[in-house]
Every structure is written in C-alpha cells, then in structure tokens.
User: What shape does this take?
Amino acid sequence: MSDRTTHWQNVYATKGEAEVSWFQDSPAISLEMIRAASPDHDAGIIDIGGGASRLVDALLHDGYRDVAVLDLSANALDAAKKRLGTAASMVDWIVADATTWRPAKTWDVWHDRAAFHFLTDPRDRAAYVERLRSALAPGGQVIIATFAPDGPEKCSGLPVQRHDSASLSAELGPEFSLVETRSETHHTPWHSTQAFQFSRFRRRS
Assistant: This one.
C-alpha cells in the first residue's frame, strides 16, 4: 500500500463524511458543469478522487445511468455506498490511484474536485494526464477543480499545488480547449473559507 493510499484510508477511517474540509452538502457547481458538458443521461461520467462526495447521489438523482467513482480509499467509497444503499449497485466503484490506474473503458466526462491539486510532483501530474487521455473519449470533457492561486497551501496535512485555468491548460496540453472557468468560495464545515477554481475543457475529436 502506498503512502498516499495509507494517508487517505486513515482519513476516512477516523473522520465522518462531514468532518473533512472539502465536504459539500450540495455539489452545485460540479453538477452544473457536468450538465453543461453532457446533458445526455446516457453519457459516461467518472468522478476522480470522489471519495465519499455526494456528487454521485446528485448524478443518479439527475438521471445519469453510467456513473463511476474512483478513489484511493476503499473506506471512502464504502461510506458512499452505505449512504446510497441499494442505489450503490448502479455505480461502478473503482479503488485505484489515478496516477497508476489502467482504465478499462472510456468516459464522456472526467470530473475531479480537489484530487489533482495534491499532485505536487510533476511526474505524478504527467502520469495523471496520461490516464486521463486513456480514459476520456474523443470530444469528451474534463472538469478539474483545485485550490485557486490564492487558496490554501495545504489540505489534510499535505502540501498542494494551486492552479488556475492557464496552469491546468499547460498540464493538459494543446488537445484540450478551455470552455469555461468559475471561482468558488468554499465554506468548510467549521465555517472557514477556501478559494477554489473550476475549469472545464473539451478534448478535440
């Protein structure tokens, strides 16, 4: 088990769903951007680093039928499965590291809120992008949310790499075109604030 996996397994073994800074009762911006990227409910959606996020609940409620959630932590995914109950059987749950995972299929939308910014080593970011390219269908869209340049420098005791749409464009490369970017002031469960940015890109067909 990698150090990264051990860290996140411990986080979700010792903290409840709403006891982490990134908790959102309603992932509104993510859902709005996914709807904009692909209103077709048959589209394949994968949530990278989804953990125990409630985005999967919202996607199923919206009517999306091909939803996958990938996370390093089996504990995090177990929490989401328990919350969903019988609806959990409608989701493809993937326990994997997005920098080493080997995708078995392609999806139309790749969503990542607050996973990519933990990749502070350029080699890990390059490995992540390589997997993204393997997993995203031609013409597919990518939504990546990270701490903004004026956001926190650490999260969950770990350093982060803050981004804006320009730095994300540089990481993804010229085959991805920026469609939109949005700012969010995220309110943590203990009422502090964090500056996030959301960027959506389209892959050339």
Remarks:
- The first strand starts at residue 44 and ends at 48.
- The helical segments are 3-14, 28-37, 55-62, 74-84, 122-135, 165-172.
- The mean pLDDT is 94.
- The CA atoms of residues 24 and 54 lie 7 Å apart.
